[in-house]
Amino acid sequence: MLVAVTSIVGYSWSSKSIETPQSSVQHTEAKRHVSKTADDNSPTSKTASFSDNRVSQGKQVQTENLHGKAYAENLTELEGKTLLKELDEFWTLCQQVGNCTEQLAQLKSKLPIEWFELLSDYPKLSADWQVMESTIPLESVDSLEARVELFKQSAQEIWGELAHQLFADQFAHLDFTLKANTLEEVEPTEFVLHYQGLISEWEGKTGTLNAETPAQKYELAVSLLPNSYSSVELATIKAELQETYLDAEQADNIAVREQQVAQQQQTVMTYHDQLDQLKSSLDSQRSASHANWDTQEWNSYYQQQVTEFREQFFMK
């Protein structure tokens, strides 16, 4: 199945590596600057410090966005990849401008405390999560359910109560993985019916599952087919899925593609079979007709035979 425990690792942390400024990233540092005077944020003092047009323009846009409650309200409504992108952009831009502390001070009273802590501590939390994610011992856990739970617990350990909002996409995908795993126990004749029920249940999350179009739903269904089904059962189910989700042209294209894949797989199998036969023959020669050859002479001959075989095989 495509949706397996590899899905957990597949959602690797995509956040940019954000440099942590000495004067702004720490939450305590932001607190010390909440009471900065209006002169520190005046247009004159700001524009005097930056001559680069791109940075100045970015500063103006960010300042406009952060005044009032609009930015704070918008931030708390985001989730998943959209939220992560917004946090990345906030820190990337404020570091370019050099006013992270000022921007955090403006937002402190407009954000719930847990959201302000997330925003102000984001660079450190992001770095901590990258370390944590790379060391989660998923391989040491047997069941898929336990692996999913371990991943969620690890995320919550770093990100706290907002982990569910930051990882909305990932958690939804993992929950779907667990649900889809039940298809392993479905009889072949019932697979399509159970799959349709599963998709209906997750209709609001099809974007996260990359299953919005009928063609994508077909591809997802094929990826979930149990390995325990026979080749005849698989062919029957695929035909039913194609009739359900694909038009005639799409079905023809898939048939051509599957034929190409099958041919490639057969070519690979033939290559390895013939290569194994050659190596077996060479081993026999080494112990018989070429037993008196020294190591260097034999290695040269062996490599030459293998190289010639590969060239001739792929020239066919």
TrEMBL record:
Residues 40-63 have a biased composition (Polar residues). It comes from the Bacteria. Residues 20-63 are annotated as: Disordered. Residues 28-39 have a biased composition (Basic and acidic residues). This is Chromosome partitioning protein ParA.
